[in-house]
């Protein structure tokens, strides 16, 4: 539960501004365009957290591509990974012999992406890579690293630009930290 003092007022600190996000996504889109030109990649959005990053990133990808969506849960409403990953919605597309890029909001313990990469790798894609907007490498519990990363963040629970606390704050256009005094 959070004591609400106003959407923006609940945020103690802005870590990444809207402009910094825009510049970084543009840079990553250019890089992916260079690496995947002519390969018709499939971008996989891991719902719900990567929704804004995904939609901004694919619009910076300047060649043919397809998109698909996957939904899994591991967190409930808390801030600590339960270690259990459950697929709520699987991909619609067959990814055999396709170049697949998993688009994540944040890598924390790595449990989610470790599970997802094993699941998708078993379907024999031509290649499988991970792009994450944010990475908290200090907290990793699995031997897995992103292939592309936007920003390294310190070990704080962050919200905004898709990331939530108890399903709130996904609509903030920046990434920030909730005032922990408000969490009851
Ligand atoms: P992991 O399995 O521990 O790497 O966690 C991955 C998922 O946990 C992410 O895709 C997020 O949905 C969520 N998560 C991890 N850290 C944060 C955070 O600081 N804020 C919001 N969600 C987070
Ligand atoms: Mg996520």
Task: Give an account of the 3D structure.
With 184 residues, the chain is α/β, with parallel strands linked by helices. It has a single domain, classed as Rossmann fold, CATH 3.40.50. Helix content is 22%, strand content 29%. The chain is built from 3 helices and 9 strands. The strands form 2 sheets. A 6-stranded mixed sheet has the order 4-3-2-5-6-7, with helices on both faces. Strands 1-9-8 form a 3-stranded antiparallel sheet, covered by helices on one side. Helix 1 packs across helix 2. The longest helix has 19 residues. The radius of gyration is 16 Å and the shape is globular. The termini are close together. The model has no long low-confidence stretch (mean pLDDT 94). The site of magnesium ion has 4 residues, from strand 5. Magnesium ion (MG) binds next to strand 5.
**CATH level 3 topology:** Rossmann fold
Number of strands: 9
Give the CATH level 1 class.
Answer: Alpha Beta
Instruction: Tell me, briefly, the overall form.
Output: globular
Which molecules other than protein and nucleic acid are bound? inosinic acid, magnesium ion
List keywords for this structure.
single chain; 184 residues; alpha/beta; Rossmann fold; three-stranded antiparallel beta sheet; 3 helices; globular; binds inosinic acid; binds magnesium ion
């Amino acid at each position: 539960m959070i004591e609400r003092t106003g959407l923006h007022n609940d945020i103690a600190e802005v870590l990444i501004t809207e402009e910094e996000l825009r510049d970084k996504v543009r840079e990553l889109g250019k890089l992916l365009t260079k690496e995947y030109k002519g390969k018709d990649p499939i971008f996989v959005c891991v719902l719900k957290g990567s929704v804004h990053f995904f939609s901004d990133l694919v619009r910076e990808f300047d060649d043919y591509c397809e998109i698909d969506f996957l939904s899994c849960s591991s967190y409930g409403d808390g801030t600590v990974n339960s270690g259990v990953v459950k697929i709520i919605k699987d991909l619609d597309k067959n990814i055999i012999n396709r170049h697949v890029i998993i688009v994540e909001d944040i890598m924390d313990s790595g449990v989610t992406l470790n599970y997802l990469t094993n699941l998708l790798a078993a379907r024999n894609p031509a290649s499988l890579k991970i792009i994450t907007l944010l990475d908290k490498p200090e907290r990793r519990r699995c031997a897995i690293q992103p292939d592309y990363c936007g920003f390294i963040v310190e070990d704080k629970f962050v919200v905004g630009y898709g990331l939530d606390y108890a399903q709130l704050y996904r609509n903030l256009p920046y990434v920030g930290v909730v005032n922990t005094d408000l969490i009851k």
